[in-house]
Amino acid sequence: MSKPTNPFNLFCFLFIFLAFWRFPVLANHDGPYSRSSSIVFTTLGRASYCFDIYSVPLWVAPASSNELQLTDGVSVNFNGYFPSPSSVSMLFAAPDRTQADVSPPPLHLVYVTERNGSSHVFLDLLYYGGREHTGSRAILEEDPSESTRSELTRFQFPLVGSEQSDGRVSMKDKPTLVGEYLIYVSTHENTGVPRTSWAAVYSTHLKTGSTRRLTPYGVADFSPAVSPSGVWTAVASYGEKGWGGEVEDLGTDIYLFLTRDGASRVKVVEHGGWPSWADDSTFYFHRRCEDGWWSVFKASILKNQKLGVDSVVTERVTPPGFHVFTPAASTSNKSFIAVATRRPDSEFRHIELFDVVSKQFVELTRPISPNVHHLNPFISPDSSRVGYHRCRGTSNGQERTNLILENLKNPLSEKIPLFRFDGSFPSFSPDGSRIAFVDFPGVYVVNSDGSSLRKVFERNAFSTAWDWKRKGVVYTSAGQEFSSESTDVDIVSINVDDENLSYKQLTRGGKNDAFPSASPDGKWVAFRSGRSGHKNLYIMDALEGEAGGLYRLTEGPWSDTMCNWSPDGEWILFASDRENPGSGSFELFMVHPNGTGLHNLVQSGSGGRANHPCFSPDGKYVVFTSDYAGVSAEPISNPHHYQPYGEIFVIKSDGSGIRRLTHNSYEDGTPAWGPKYMKHDDVEWPNGGTTCSFEDCHWLNISPDTDNVAKCSSLYSAPVKPQCYTN
């Protein structure tokens, strides 16, 4: 890509210089986290995402030749927004400079991007054809030849990220540029209450960095949308009722508040999400109906009435029979909206136009790429283009890069590298040089630099743990994961340094014996077993297994599981639902190997989960996965995650000082804390890895009961009060 040559170049340099001068990186205060070590964890499906934002013209027949990749192919780019040229000009204080000597005029794009695992909001100014191109935008859309695309000039500005927010690492979802202000969702403020969402809407003045929280404390807001005038912001919100653990439809209500300061907040729609404004008195939203179908609704604000639920009339505008969600309204052409759909005859979600007058759909993306998911559409201010994000794969001549280790920014200490690992249940060897992990089915071992990957166990297994004293010995749970107490699962030790990969079965009877953890002296292995009818903890001989010695550590009608032995041998850490057996709510506990000293380490709140704990190498801290911070975004706006609320946390081993390591809407889990400092570098898969193999939300794969379609069919196209929802 050639360097920009127009007069805007100097301005870009000055803007970036001033941005970083005004928002300096916060000095790193490592404190107790200064010891050299590394943390790895797993994110479900994340290595296959690699989203980029694409765009197609609305009034040209869909064809692969007119699909433009707008973002730069770096990391994950999603949830885009086309700001108005006036907002961009106001931001840069150069009304005419952005279009100087350029025809066609540039595309402006605001979007969320993940760079080094941190969420940022970027602004890109895209020039297609540069100074030499003299054609119209219509010509570009109809015939965007490779030669034209190769002339792309990009000006890229980080608007809000960790550098511009005093080092805060957080999710910054669905951003909107309003003059000199950016409206977005962030999760950087701890609510202080387990299992409550940290998601809140903020406004940042981009020229000064001054940031205001618009969401009241004690409330969670998602999917903000600013009205065309900029006066109102609509959000999907829990209000005061809080999160009940939903992973499909959050059951949010839609609130309005003044964009300038969050005042005059009022609920206007019961049960709705993902609002999108057509004008200052009309917006669209989605909800899951009583008939089971996700549908888009129109909300009309009545004039001369006090703003509230009674002053807003809603009508269902999309029919039952297939799922329609994440609407995007046009502010310049109110006859149509863009939506994402899941039709029964497709396994993929696609972007379509829906004519709200004729009730007709026009497919946009399925004719171009039928076997790829397309997410979260947005429309340009002049209604000429629709944007969306999808997995870039190998399109547009770009090679797909798959990472086994993705280096992320550690918000606690730069001296402790943090990596997303593309494999389940990773664990470090005692010297930190190797990582064992599961890739169903089978167990693998790889060097911590990503080299020498090999399979060491063929059978289906879950969880891995290394022996502290016997070099090359890895323990695992051989059998089916997520199973009952009576399922055949046994603890197996594998000598991964043996040329023949010998292994030994340590438990007998297969009553869901799982999650082994060896004692530091190499003599014992703690594990959980369902042999009594309940999953409790046991300790057995490390060499001979239960045949060489076995005793029970915990006992009760609950599940004790996922144990981890402390480096000094004094404690065994584990997850348990003993506070509410059978509820699915897990907390972390510690107990001495002799059964004394049992106490709670992490409380999860009502229905909460804290799982997969692991001690730091010095035993002073514990890393674990939890829904302590609730859910960060509407799940339907993302790919499938069994737990779209799982994040990685660190706490002191005395139960104080809980800190959050990850901020996203993915399922993060199974962390491991190793004794070796790993370089802050991404590591590619030795054999390339998979490409775009993630799954869509599972609940969209199931067609609702057709007998119930009539419940909402009668509401279709009829202005009604909001009755079509699941209680």
Give, in spatial order, the strands making up the sheet with the most strands.
48-1-27-26-49
Low-pLDDT segments, ≥5 res? 1-34, 94-100, 130-150, 707-727
In percent, how much strand structure appears in the residues?
35-45%
Q: Would you identify the CATH H-level superfamily of one domain?
A: TolB, C-terminal domain
- The second-level CATH architecture of one domain is 6 Propeller
Basic shape: elongated
Number of DSSP helical runs: 5
Largest beta-sheet details: 5 strands, mixed
Helix content: under 10%
CA gyration radius, whole angstroms = 27 Å
The level 1 CATH classification of one domain is: Mainly Beta
Mean pLDDT metric: 86
Summing up helix and strand content along with how strands pair, one would put the structural category as mainly beta
Total beta strand runs: 50
Q: Compute the separation of the termini in Å.
A: 54 Å
CATH topology of one domain: Neuraminidase
